[in-house]
User: Fold this.
Amino acid sequence: MDIEAIYQKPSNHDVKSLLESKFGNKITVKGLEMDRVLVDVADKNDIFEICCYISDNLTFEHCSIVMGLDMIEHMEVIYVLTNYYTGINIELTVKLPLDDLHIPSIALIWEGANWHERETYELFGIIFDGHPKLERLLTPDTYNFYPFRKSYKLRGQE
Assistant:
């Protein structure tokens, strides 16, 4: 744990500076708003390490959102992490190539991410490696399609 970086009330500028100094070329801060820090993560394999640091050292105690986004040429996983003391959110975006939709699970860091990851798996087919129970929530196991992908065509439509 990086003891010098533990903040109960980091400002959005503190969050930006600490993430950039800790992770350098692994991330790009693409925006800074009053209550939000927008970050692109360069390599999907770094997401677990980055999230551990955010949880342990910046006191972001909640994973509010994990969602998929189909950009046609690639998929994205977007995480919204919340610090309750300040109301600041960090939005992490990770691009996934269509031929490798695997990304490390963060459910071991924030248990609330468990269901978000399962839902993203069910709707987009993104696989969260190391997830404790990655299975469909609502659709049958026999479904071999992912309804939120842009390539999915509704039955009866041409």
